[in-house]
Amino acid sequence: MRAIAFHDVNDFRIEEVEVPKIGFGEVLLKLKACGLCGTDIHKAIHKTVNPGTVLGHEYTGEIVKVGEGVTKFKIGDRVVGAIHVPCFTCHYCQRQHYTLCPEFRETNIDPGGFAEYIRLSEKHVRHLLFGIPDSMSYQHATLAEPVACCIHGQKAAEIRPGDNVLIMGAGPIGVIHGQLLKHKDVSNVMISDVSSYKLSKAKEFGIDYTVNIKNDSLKDVVDKVTDNQGVDIVIIAAGVSSLLPEAVQLLRRGGRVICFSPFEKYPEVTIDAGRFFKDEISIVGTYSVSPYEFEEAILNISNGTIDAEKMITHEMAIDQVGEAITFAASPDEEVMKVVIVD
C-alpha cells in the first residue's frame, strides 16, 4: 500500500509498505479521508517527529477486515476515531485527566492517517472508534476529532450563560470553538487574528466580533463590547506565547484563560501574577480529546452546529501531503481546512 512518510522539512515521500496485519479485537480500515491538522504542520516544519513517520490522525474510512472477537463493528462500517487511548485505571484517568495518562501517548494508529490502510488496536476498537451517519460524507467526518478536542477544551472553560468569550486565533480550531460557542447561551463571541481572510470566514460562521490586530486594538474592542469589564473566557487557539499575558490583561475578574495551543517552542513570558489573588483568575491548559466527546462531535457536525461545508476549503490527494502542508502553513494563502482524500 502507499504511505506518505515525513523525512525532513519539505521532504515527504510516497513509500510502498505492507498492509498492516490485524490481530484479536483489531480492525483494518481503508482510509477515505484524513484532515490536515495544525499539529501535523507543526511536526513537519519543526521536525519534532522521526524521519519515516506517517503523520495524520483526523482519519475516517471503511472497515475492510475485522479480527476475531470484534462484535461492535463489521466489514463495510463507516467509522471515525481518535489516535490515542487512555488506560482508564491510572491516577490521572481516575481523576478524569485522560489525556495525561502515561499510556495515552503510547497508543497509536498503525501507521498514520496519510496512508491507504491503518490498523486499529483492540483498545481503539473498544473505546475510540465510532460509526458515522450514512448522510455524512467522509470529508465532513474528518472534523469529528478536532471538534471533539474543542468540546473537551470548552468543558475546562466552564462557560456559563451570559459570558463574553474571546478566541485568539481564527484558524480551524478557533472557528470551531466559535461555532460551538454560538450554540451556547453566551452574550458575545469575539475572535482575533492577523489574517483578513480567516476573519472574514469567522464572520461567515456567525461570530459576533472579528478583530484584525494588525489594524485595531483588541483591548479597545473588548472594552467596548464588555463595558470595560473584560471577557469572562479567553481561548488561546494560536501557538504564540505572547498572547498569554495579553489574555490575562483582557480577563474580567474571576475569568479564565484556556490554553489550547502548544507554547513549548516559544520564549518565556511574564504575566501579572497579582491577578490570581486579587481577581481570582485562572489559567487552564487542555490537550487532545478524551473518549467522551466524540459522539457529541459527530452530532454537532450532523445537525449543522459545525458547518463542515464552509470549514473545508480544499481537498488534496494523498500524494500531495507535502504540498498541502506547505500550502496550509503559508500566511499568504486563503485556506481554512485541508482534507486529504484517497
From TrEMBL:
Gene3D superfamilies: Medium-chain alcohol dehydrogenases, catalytic domain (3.90.180.10), NAD(P)-binding Rossmann-like Domain (3.40.50.720). Keywords: Metal-binding, Oxidoreductase, Zinc. The keyword Zinc applies. Its cofactor is Zn(2+). PANTHER family: L-THREONINE 3-DEHYDROGENASE. Residues 7-340 form the Enoyl reductase (ER) domain. Belongs to the zinc-containing alcohol dehydrogenase family. This is L-iditol 2-dehydrogenase. One of its GO terms (molecular function) is zinc ion binding. It holds the Pfam family ADH_N. It comes from Peribacillus simplex. Transmembrane segments: none annotated.
